[in-house]
Amino acid sequence: MAKLREPEEVSMDTQIQHMLTVARSRGIETAFDRADQTSARCPFGSAGLCCRSCLEGPCRIVPNGSGPRRGVCGADADTLVARSLLNTMIQGASGHAEHGREVAAALLKTAEGKAPYVIRDVGKLMQVAKGLNLEMEGKSINEVAKAVALAALEDFQKHEGVMNWIEYRGHHKSREIWDKLGITPVNAHLEIAKAVTRNAMGGDADPLNLLLGSVTMGLVDGYSGLHLSSDLQDILFGTPKAVKFNYSLGVLDEKQINIAVHGHIPLLSEKIVEWAQILERKALTVGAEGINIVGVCCTGNELLMRQGVHAASSFSSQELVIVTGALEAMVVDIQCIMPGIQQVAECYHTEIITTMPHVKIAGATHVNFEPEYADDAAREIVERAIRNFAKRDPAKVVIPGGSVEAHAGFSVEQICEVTAKINADKPLQPLIDAIKNGAIRGVAAVIGCTNPREPQDIGNVTVARELLKNNVLIVTTGCAAHSLAKFGLMNEGGLEACGDSLKALLRQLGQHAGLSALPPALHMGSCVDNSRPLDLLSAIADELDVPISSLPAVGSCPETHSPKALTIGTYFMAHGVDVHVGVDPQVSGSNLVTRTLTGSREDKGITMDGLFGGKLIVEIDPVKAAAVLLERIDIKRRTLGI
Ligand code: MSK
Predict the structure, then answer these.
(1) Would you say the C-alpha torsion 262, 265, 268, 273 has a positive or negative sign?
(2) Does one domain contain both 392 and 410?
(3) What are phi and psi of 354, to 5 degrees?
(4) Could you identify the atom of ligand 1 that is nearest to the CA of residue 477?
(5) Residue 350 in contact with residue 54, Cβ under 8 Å?
(6) Would you place residue 2 in the very low, low, confident or very high pLDDT band (cuts 50, 70, 90)?
(7) Are residues 305 and 223 in the same domain?
(8) Could you give the number of structural domains in the chain?
(9) Which atom of ligand 1 is nearest to the CA of 264?
(10) 462 is in which domain, residue-wise?
(11) For atom 8 of ligand 1, which residue has the closest CA?
């Protein structure tokens, strides 16, 4: 039996440490324990050198070069590793593309009056329609919304040309590079199908060509997934504005009916919030004081960005929300949902409710979600949670005390609304001036996950703190944002982490946002909202008439576990932004692949940096990683002549 890590080694969050101790004392296994039990990892798979593409295999190549050098078909280590990476990218891109398609289908049904949603942000609808060059003259709001939805769905259907969202959102200087390389996507489904085909046995066996296929997956992810989802969700649910929320397991309330919403797509969870309000009085009839919705992972981020719904947990500790014994239902949609939640829930009265027909868990309740019947599903879920309250065992309830106040809702629109109070004609100018005069040394997007194999929050918080003290402005999304919120980097107290010039700027900007200071880490949203940092960089690049690759901007993903984080990172690199990962990306079995991804433009051979102006930085130590990111920021500053 593998030795389990001590709770202090698992997370820097004392509430998580406490709840892990509670789980273990009750004989409940969580992802942290399973990570220890499976710590002996396959050296072939870890290096990307295990091929399961056909029934001749699995073929494995020994990482150090001894033993067979090729699989049965003749594929060598470089091809195996490049294929294995592309496989990961296909998973990431498919997940986000499917997110975008679901939201587009819901918008279409809304526009046709078939789904119970309303267009909450008409201004954003018109802006997107204009960006897509759609005819708006004389059209009603629903007619424009229908045209936008159809343009979005076309990005999963068209057979020639370029994806509409790339035409609309893609930066023209990046486009030139992608077009020249022939990697600009036509439609998401077509590109995903092509990638699966090229990766099959007997398909593409040129490692560099396979790597370009991975970049195409990054673009599919970025445009049919991230940009398309953020735009359409803003239209349906409103563009985020500054909002306050609380973070930690302590947001569960013993006196209320607690419902956790978990996953990524906010279509149903928005309705659950609505129905929790409608059915509030029914909760009183079972002895509860109300209904408390809490967020997990990115569905949590979506709700906190627009409604200030409190957040309970990031990815790696999702099972511990159930261990509190105070959760009546955990409602899940898609992605990042551990099957392990069902085993934990069986030790309590918590009902796990799956909602998508293609994402079910054995033993869980399924309440099917279709946009047309969103109200019915949301009502049924809230009513189930109300009924479950009576089954709660008070003796099992352990909710750690306290939570951290945080500010979120920093869409590009919200940031520009603040900076426009300094320069109404050119809202980006205050940021550009600050970058030019060094008050902001650079901008870093600290994004991605928490990973049960890694000590929770340490990587995310350390990278952010190291950069902040060097006056790097942090924008954040996903579960990394959960880490930064928990450790005080989204409230005024977090200013102590900043260098002097950044601190002064955040205080100045805060006055224009009705706050004493902007938080050091600007929460831009969920995983799909990684579109927002790119939109911000794209607008700054336009203003300066330079490519995005010239800007002193970097991405960092210190604790990732998800293929989606690798495709998001690739999408950033395809725009010329350097990206750090703090977890082994499993490509070490090929020198060629590793050099192409991580090499500099001055190196011999083809590199991502040479092609796009951004490269992959693999560094497990967060302090060293921040130092490398600062070096890269300074190189870009010098290139820009500032
Ligand atoms: S939920 S992909 S663990 S950020 Fe978006 Fe968190 Fe990573 Fe899932």
Answers:
(1) positive
(2) no
(3) -85, 155
(4) 4
(5) no
(6) confident
(7) no
(8) 3
(9) 5
(10) 406-640
(11) 336
